[in-house]
């Protein structure tokens, strides 16, 4: 009963924070207090509660480091003119009445190549959002299209760590799993593309964008070396170099270019990396080039750390075992996918990250499956996608922070939503827990 009360208070706090626009750190702190109290009531020493929080945060240390790297990357790209280069030259090839669709398709391709939602968001996503701001496209719509494409690649790319994790947990060959995911993604992808094409007609890119960007060459040196950091990321992705290393090398290159071709001092570069890039003249187009840096990731870093600490308490105190018995009963009335989807929903709320959601869901529903390939596909369509729709989950919180938009963008995330709906509509209701 105390666990259910803590769950109710936590979810109510999250709902209130989203409704009021408060920082998610506050309800997460409240959730930590609630579940820590439950753990203490059940005999877990206070010292163990703190240790559980630290262990929970340590489990996502790799992701936290990646957030830091992406923050540094966005600051360096803005400082060296990479973002300005692609914004200036990208406008000339864009059709105003297909911008939202273009953003979806380009983000899909970039994420499929990079295999990383964070890497794609921090690079091509930032460029597209800058164009959207300048062209008058509502930021939540542009972000929804960008992130939909990015989540397609994050789920389906053969170089995605998410796909590799699911295949490893389900003990199925990665390439077989990728083929199954691509087949399953075809219809939702086409439907999402059609919807974004329709949205593009209602919210086109402003016709005066090209003219309004005419002052960019006066603000930046837009010669081809400014594009080199982005080209390097793409090349390293094709060479299967790890995302953290690719981002680090691109940041170093961008820093060197910022001091050589853009004329920044070492002090100005350091400020851009940490506090974000701020042009000397903050007016007109220059305002759009400002931002990025490590500070832009601060909210995401705090939120993810707290959410992961909360998941550590839940795991160490054994509180989630209460859900397992409930799921066994539910699985007798629902299909396997429906059971996995429900489990993923709870896991994504409490775990704070996509990786933990996948692992936790696998632990809870894995014993219900006899066919590894079906388990892998269901995990990809539920545990890997639902975190993309939870505003306080790292899978969405991080990209939202990079694009500087709020949780309203969730309403325009067509691809993950449609894929789940298509699976539910095509799912046959079965009795019994096993197939």
Q: Concise description?
A:
The protein has 23 helices and no strands. The protein is mainly alpha-helical.
Could you characterize the architecture of this molecule?
This protein has 435 residues and is mostly helical. It has a domain at 71-167 and 174-294. Helix content is 72%, strand content 0%. The protein is built from 23 helices and no strands. It has helices spanning 2-20, 25-41, 46-58, 61-80, 82-90, 99-114, 117-135, 139-156, 161-170, 174-202, 209-212, 216-219, 228-238, 243-260, 266-275, 286-289, 298-316, 321-330, 336-351, 354-365, 372-383, 394-403, 414-426. Helix 4 (61-80) runs parallel beside helix 14 (243-260). The longest helix has 29 residues, at 174-202. It is globular. It starts with a helix and ends in a 9-residue tail after the last helix.
Descriptive keywords:
0% strand; 72% helix; 435 residues; mainly alpha; disordered C terminus
In percent, how much strand structure appears in the residues?
A: under 5%
Silhouette: globular
Question: What series of H and E elements makes up the topology?
Answer: HHHHHHHHHHHHHHHHHHHHHHH
**Approximate helicity band:** over 70%
User: What's the mean pLDDT score?
Assistant: 84
Low-confidence parts lasting 5 or more residues at pLDDT below 50?
429-435
Count of beta strands: 0
Report the C-alpha radius of gyration, rounded: 22 Å
Helices, by number, come to 23
* Terminus-to-terminus distance: 33 Å
Query: Sheet with the most strands?
Result: none
Query: Helix/strand-derived class?
Result: mainly alpha
Oligomer: single chain
């Amino acid at each position: 009963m105390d666990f259910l009360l803590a769950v109710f208070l936590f979810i109510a706090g999250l709902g209130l924070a989203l409704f009021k626009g408060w920082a998610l750190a506050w309800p997460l702190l409240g959730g930590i207090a609630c579940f820590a109290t439950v753990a203490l009531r059940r005999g877990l020493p206070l010292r163990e509660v703190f240790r559980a929080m630290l262990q929970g945060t340590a489990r996502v240390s790799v992701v936290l480091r990646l957030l830091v790297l992406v923050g540094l990357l966005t600051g360096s790209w803005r400082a060296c003119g990479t973002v300005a280069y692609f914004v200036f030259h990208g406008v000339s090839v864009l059709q105003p009445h297909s911008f939202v669709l273009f953003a979806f398709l380009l983000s899909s391709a970039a994420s499929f190549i990079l295999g990383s939602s964070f890497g794609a968001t921090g690079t091509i996503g930032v460029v597209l959002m800058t164009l959207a701001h300048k062209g008058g496209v509502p930021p939540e719509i542009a972000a929804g299209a960008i992130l939909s494409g990015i989540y397609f690649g994050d789920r389906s790319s053969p170089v995605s760590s998410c796909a590799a994790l699911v295949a490893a947990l389900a003990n199925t060959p990665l390439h077989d799993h990728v083929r199954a995911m691509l087949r399953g993604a075809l219809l939702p992808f086409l439907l999402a593309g059609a919807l974004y094409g329709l949205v593009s007609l209602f919210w086109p890119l402003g016709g005066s964008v090209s003219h309004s960007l005419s002052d960019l060459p006066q603000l930046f040196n837009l010669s081809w070396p400014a594009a080199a950091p982005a080209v390097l990321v793409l090349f390293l992705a094709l060479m299967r170099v790890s995302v953290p290393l690719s981002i680090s090398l691109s940041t170093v290159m961008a820093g060197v270019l910022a001091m050589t071709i853009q004329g920044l001092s070492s002090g100005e570069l350091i400020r851009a990396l940490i506090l974000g890039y701020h042009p000397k003249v903050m007016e007109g187009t220059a305002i759009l080039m400002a931002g990025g840096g490590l500070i832009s990731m601060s909210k995401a870093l705090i939120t993810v750390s707290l959410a992961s600490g909360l998941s550590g308490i839940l795991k160490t105190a054994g509180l989630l075992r209460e859900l397992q018995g409930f799921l066994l009963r539910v699985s007798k009335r629902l299909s396997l996918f429906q059971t996995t989807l429900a489990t993923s929903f709870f896991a994504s709320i409490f775990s704070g990250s996509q990786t933990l959601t996948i692992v936790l869901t696998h632990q809870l529903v894995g014993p219900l499956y006899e066919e590894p390939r079906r388990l892998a596909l269901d995990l990809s369509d539920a545990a890997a996608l639902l975190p993309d729709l939870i505003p306080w989950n790292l899978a969405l919180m991080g990209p939202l922070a990079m694009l500087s938009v709020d949780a309203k963008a969730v309403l325009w995330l067509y691809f993950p939503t449609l894929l789940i709906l298509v699976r539910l509509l095509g799912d046959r209701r079965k009795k019994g827990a096993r197939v």
